[in-house]
Amino acid sequence: MNGPGDRLDSLKLGITKRYGNKTVLDNLELDIRKGEFVTFLGPSGCGKSTALSIVAGLIAATEGEIRLNGARVDHLPPEKRAFGMVFQNYALFPHMTVFDNVSFGLTLKPLSKEEIKKRTDAMLKLVQLTGYEERYPGQLSGGQQQRVAIARALVLHPRLMLFDEPLSNLDAKLRVEMRAEIKQIHAALGLTSIYVTHDQAEALSLSDRIVLLRNGVLMQSGTPQEIHDRPKNVFVADFMGFRNFFKVRIASVSNGIAEGVGDGIRIRARAGADVRVDTDMVMAIRPDDIRAGGEVVSGAEDVSGRVEVVEYLGREQEAAIRINDNTRVWLRTAEAIRTADTIGLQFPIDKVVLLPAE
Ligand SMILES: Nc1ncnc2c1ncn2[C@@H]1O[C@H](COP(=O)(O)OP(=O)(O)OP(=O)(O)O)[C@@H](O)[C@H]1O
């Protein structure tokens, strides 16, 4: 299989979008390198689809520019950018067969019938749809339709693939299967991809880099591991599944460890050189990083409380434990726990993140 038609070595964005006096993208700056899989992640309305549509050329930025290999492309219409797009709703031609849907873009090019067939067949094989050539979209499942949409975009060898929530119409099981396929195709063809989703698990599993947006502002950009383990603020931590947040005042900092007091507890975290005594901060920890002691142990680091709610999750359970009048802690554990049990909790120092107060 040939590589992408025109090369992409780098894509550089610096874009602002306003509708009236509402800013929906506030100087979003980003450098994307060849071969990268970058995900725009964030809640509904954060501006991720708008950013993707601006890259695609479907809507114009209010200010800023897009540079491909150093040259501006923001004045080019979508077809001149030669980017591939896959949307949430597939957007297949309903009256055309699978083969004709996939080969459509090729028929607009000066290619022989044989060449078109060869490239279409190869692409259908890649998305595992060999044998479905003569079917119509209405005769396919959602996952199959989405694979046709992906094949239709890829057959043109786009230098950049843009995916806008391509899996949100699929059921949970198919979503997980399809995301593995997308990842495999991205790697096999050496694509450069931008992917929009509000699903953090999808972003973590697919991306080389996640760009997290809130109200059009970039909150954090980093590898899945950085975003997952080291969120920089409460918004990112909350979005990435931290469920315990304690408002604390820093009581001491020594040897790179800060002790915070607040919400009726005392908790410690590793601290950078910029953390000062007497400042208000937030300490956060994931439910699965808290250790549950089988019995109540006393000591400065430990707290204990009564189980108020247990959510069954299959192999594990997530439980809300009331540790004082104002504070509940969410714990995830494979141990059997029941409502009204009293259990001891520990917050491992390396798992607690220290965040600026909101
Ligand atoms: N044509 C428009 N006119 C005015 N406001 C708009 C327009 N299009 C989008 N917006 C606003 O811009 C913001 C960002 O929208 P966008 O669709 O990019 O969000 P999103 O993060 O992709 O959300 P979702 O996941 O719900 O699609 C929203 O507040 C939306 O209401």
Secondary structure: elements and pairs:
Layout: E1 10-19, E2 22-33, E3 37-41, H1 48-56, E4 63-68, E5 71-72, H2 78-81, E6 83-86, H3 98-107, H4 113-126, H5 142-154, E7 160-164, H6 172-188, E8 193-197, H7 200-206, E9 209-214, E10 217-222, H8 224-229, H9 234-239, E11 244-254, E12 257-262, E13 265-270, E14 280-285, E15 291-293, E16 303-312, E17 317-324, E18 327-333, E19 342-346, E20 353-356
Parallel strand pairs: 3-8, 3-9, 6-7, 7-8
Antiparallel strand pairs: 1-2, 1-4, 4-5, 9-10, 11-12, 11-14, 12-13, 14-20, 15-19, 16-17, 16-19, 17-18
Helix pairs in contact: 3-4, 3-5, 4-5
Adenosine-5'-triphosphate binds at residues 19, 24, 42, 44-50, 198.
Function: Involved in beta-(1-->2)glucan export. Transmembrane domains (TMD) form a pore in the inner membrane and the ATP-binding domain (NBD) is responsible for energy generation.
GO molecular function, one term: ATP hydrolysis activity
Domain ABC transporter: 6-240
